[in-house]
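Lab meeting, action items carried over

1. Structure of the two-component assembly. Owner: GW. Status: complete.
Input record:
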Amino acid sequence: MAEETHFSGKKPLDHVVEKQTAGLLKSAEIHGVEMPGHLAAGTDAMKESAFLLVFLATVLDRLAYTPNEIGGILTIFSIGWMLWKTGRAALLGWHHLERMHRVMEEERWEIEHHRKQERQELLELYSVKGFQGKLLDDVVDVLMSDSDRLLRVMLEEELGLTLETTEHPLLQSAGAFFGVLIAAVTVILSVLFFPIYGIIITGAIVVATASVIAARNERNRTIPATIWNLGMAGAAFGIGYFLLDFVLTR
Amino acid sequence: MVATLNNRVSPYIFDDYFNKGQTSANSPFVTASSRWMGKDLPLRASLIAALFLATAFALSFFPTVKPASGILLVAVYFLVGIPSLIDAVRDLAAFEINIDVLMTFAAFSSVLLGSGMEGALLLVLFETSSALEKTVTRKAQGAISRLHRLSPGSAHVVKEDGTLLERSVKDITVGTQILVRAGEVVPLDGTIISGTTQVSLMHLTGENVPVTKKPGEEIPAGATNGEGSVTLQVTRTDDNSTVARIIKLVTQAREARPRLQCWFDRISRGYATSIISISLLFALIVPLIGHTRYFGPTGSIYRALTFLIAASPCALIIAIPIAYLSAVSVCARRGIILKGGITLDALAGCSAIAFDKTGTLTLGKLSCTGIEPLQHSGTDEKEAVIVAAALERGAVHPVARAIIAYAEERHLDGVAVDDFKATAGYGVEGMITVGTEPIKSYIGSPEFITEKLPQEAKRPLEERSEEVRAAGELLAVALISEKIWIFRFRDTLRPQIAHTIEVLKEKHRWKLLMLTGDHPASARRIANNLKIDEYYANLRPEDKLTHVSLLAEKQRLAMVGDGINDAPALARATVGICMGKVGSTTAVDAADVILLHDNLERLPWLLDKAGQTQRVVRQNLAFAAAAILGATIPALMGLIPLWLAVVLHEGGTIVVGLNALRLVRK
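Predicted assembly:
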């Protein structure tokens, strides 16, 4: 009965694969898998904030607001946006942790109540890795002898989760805070000193810088990543810019 | 493959998470470097909110920066209002109206009446006290989680082919053979099938002197194996292990609450429902039957809300738990675990105390009181001590340590031993050269020496051994050049026990008793030394229980003990106090107070703390009730504004909180 419930009618190996997939999905970092959460949150916030502020500045410029008025409005918007992004990053981080904690507690429960089935899973996992016969049995016995070690093995090997790699949600939110702050200060200063094209170029520089930082930390190819990000921002901005003609009369 | 695991990860990472409160501050997934950010988060949020509130209040007096005051107030509601709101909505979803709901309702309603500052004050105080409670509880849980680490989680199973396999104790069934090596803690109850050893049952019986175990005898889980390796056949599974039972006990102790607090919890739901109902009725009905309007500062809604806030029993709620929590927390820091605040009440009412002897008044640590020859002149006593000390240097038994200490005190230097041989659980032997000729010498239990004697010499040794044992003393026997020497040992009195007893007698005017299963001669000696009023010796567990029952009928009685034989008496006494280090599981189970470090000298301090706690609780209850009555009735009559109701109400809360915090001082 326990076996049926545990494997849901599947073979042990299928069960392992299913769990591994679920674990990978659940462990996927909100702000990207490869780089620390605070950097991911920070670079994301830089890109989004730069795009929004440049677009808002463009709208206000089209509405014939003075640079000082635009700067003031962008500052107020930035403060609200900063609080939103900071809080949101923390919340996403906490939700992510909550999911992983739930998975861990489920696995712990299974280790305590379905030991026979957990043993079968380990046998499948380690036979795939090349262990056979007595050695396989011995390895599994050793792993089963310590509940904490078994929980670690099942989390890391079966579910694909990694311990001590997620940054604390508050650190992630700090990343988002500084991301918005950098983008906001840069764009708002450019509003005060440059004409509208200068603001757009400044915004593009912020997006490009964030993309380079993210790509380097993720060990992705920097140039394609930067160009793709700039391209997306440019396309979105361009479409929005021309659509404004339909709603703005002045 | 196991090597691929992250080896930097602490082996206790899961213990910490599952036993110290499951938060981001101890999450196994969060990086070690950023975990500090989640530490005491509710408390930090409450303190930041308090700071924001104070700033908002100050800024509200300057019209030019009044919007800044509003911004800070929003931040206060965000930091402390949202957690309260989550709890309240969760309670309401479960159809439960309690104090949390009442408080949150009052705080958020005050915003509607333009009194956001007062509502924020209510939230800050409520959340701060709640966060403080959580922080203290988590710290107490930390001490408990360390107990888990004492438990052996795995055992060496002996397979059919003789090879060893490490297996979790959870997977080991009755009948399995396990190997327990020297120095290891026995993981499961079992019967010895091969090997002889000495085990320390300190955690099980309070007895510090190791016990010899031979094939066919049972060793309980939790015992510490001495020098020999033994193979056991498991007789009981892991479910009832010693450490598991201690953990269960401590958890129960933590959850046990004082009678007063239980009563308070029961009535809080009714109280909250009544107050909310009265407020609603007042707000809706009074304008229909009188001249009062619904709105405005004299309107029924305003008055009802003022009443709601004034009647929120914050001070009453925190009056009792914060006092007990402070006292329990400071006791825990001093190594005293209390089975809830009720224990303090009971202890404050006691007027007599009964002590067990061995392991409680005495250390269970042996000291050699003398050496005597058996049927010979005894002229070469010094030589006997030198030989015995030389032989015992190779052993770790308490008797060995006592003999070596005895020799050292007399500046009798050691000599070399050849052909040393130890028989686990019995004794040691070797060739020793004191003069010119090497002498074959033995020292150990009377049984060990008896085996080596001719038939006619056995009887006198057996008789003398019986006499020494009957006097409540232990003995070791040495056989040197066919001469028999008897070393006698006595238990050592616990340090500072005489002073502790004196303080209990002189300052607290407690009646002192001693209940022991030992020989009357030994009991009399200890009782006289310590000036104990009454003593009862030769008691079996049921006799101790009878004595304690009779005494407890006459006066409130505290009982201090450590062994399984004390457990019934500890349970029957008004307050059972158990020695944590040497105490048996059953005794720890039965007791109300556990002295984690066997720190009996803290007893007078604990009594002072119990009395102080009782006084603080009474003061707090009286003050809190007065504050509520003083604010609610004028509020309903419209005599006081909302802000004054909040000040009266919160003032009371702060005063009882500060009063209780006096108990935290050591």
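2. GW to write a short summary for the group page. Key points so far: Residues 35 and 218 of chain A are 6 Å apart (CA to CA). The radius of gyration of chain A is 25 Å.
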